[in-house]
Automatic annotation (TrEMBL):
InterPro entries: Cyt_P450, Cyt_P450_CS, Cyt_P450_E_grp-I, Cyt_P450_sf, Cytochrome_P450_Monoox. This is Cytochrome P450 4V2. Keywords: Endoplasmic reticulum, Heme, Iron, Membrane, Metal-binding, Monooxygenase, Oxidoreductase. The keyword Phosphoprotein does not apply. It comes from Holothuria leucospilota. It holds the Pfam family p450. One of its GO terms (molecular function) is iron ion binding. It comes from the Eukaryota. Belongs to the cytochrome P450 family. Its cofactor is heme. It is found in: Endoplasmic reticulum membrane. One of its GO terms (cellular component) is endoplasmic reticulum membrane. Heme binds at residue 142.
Length: 196
């Protein structure tokens, strides 16, 4: 239950915050939305529409990379494993800091920069398959990953077809805390302005 709503709402909050901080990114999203939906801001989205939202998908991934909703995952090793040249015995509980993994400068140059273009297919070539795993990976990955991604696309596309978002709050002013999920302690300040 927790993973089904708290993570999605936090991911959406952080994506809206970052979009509101980057007007050029917002403009590119709205251009993509206009190309797909034209001037019809109320048309229901189809699964075909969602598949065409390529740049919005990049924005979501970059938001999840920079502000990973579940920053740490743990695994109980089922067999002896070698990690980074160190032998780790079966039965050891291992924690993986996804927020650090997602900031590996070898995989993501300028890791603190919000740059959705890094997830364009041409810019993702050669990146390790497990360099970006906001939903975990392998047979223990998030069962709701596809639904959560679809849900986020629908919400963001619906909002950004109707409003412009602005956030003047700096990242260090958001007071982000890591509890079960990474979240802003006092929320984020964003302004929505209806598109006329």
């Amino acid at each position: 239950m927790f993973e089904g709503h708290d993570t999605v709402s936090t991911s959406l909050t952080m994506a809206l915050y970052l979009i509101g901080r980057h007007p050029k990114v917002q403009k590119k999203i709205q251009e993509e939305l206009h190309r797909i939906f034209g001037n019809d801001r109320d048309r229901y989205m189809t699964s075909e529409d969602l598949q065409q939202l390529e740049y919005l998908s990049c924005v979501m991934k970059e938001s999840q990379r920079l502000l990973t909703t579940v920053p740490v995952i743990g695994r109980d090793l089922k067999e002896d494993t070698r990690i980074g040249g160190i032998d780790v015995p079966k039965g050891t509980y291992v924690s993986l800091a996804l927020d650090l993994l997602h900031r590996d400068p070898n995989q993501f140059p300028e890791p603190e920069k919000f740059d959705p273009d890094r997830f364009l297919p041409s810019n993702s070539e050669g990146r390790h398959n497990f360099a970006f795993i906001p939903f975990s990976a392998g047979h223990r990955n998030c069962i709701g990953q596809k639904f959560a991604s679809m849900e986020q696309k629908v919400v963001l596309a619906t909002l950004l077809r109707k409003v412009e978002i602005k956030s003047s709050q700096k990242i260090d002013e958001t007071r982000i805390v890591g509890e079960l999920v990474l979240r802003p302690l006092d929320g984020v300040n964003v302004t929505f302005t209806r598109i006329l």
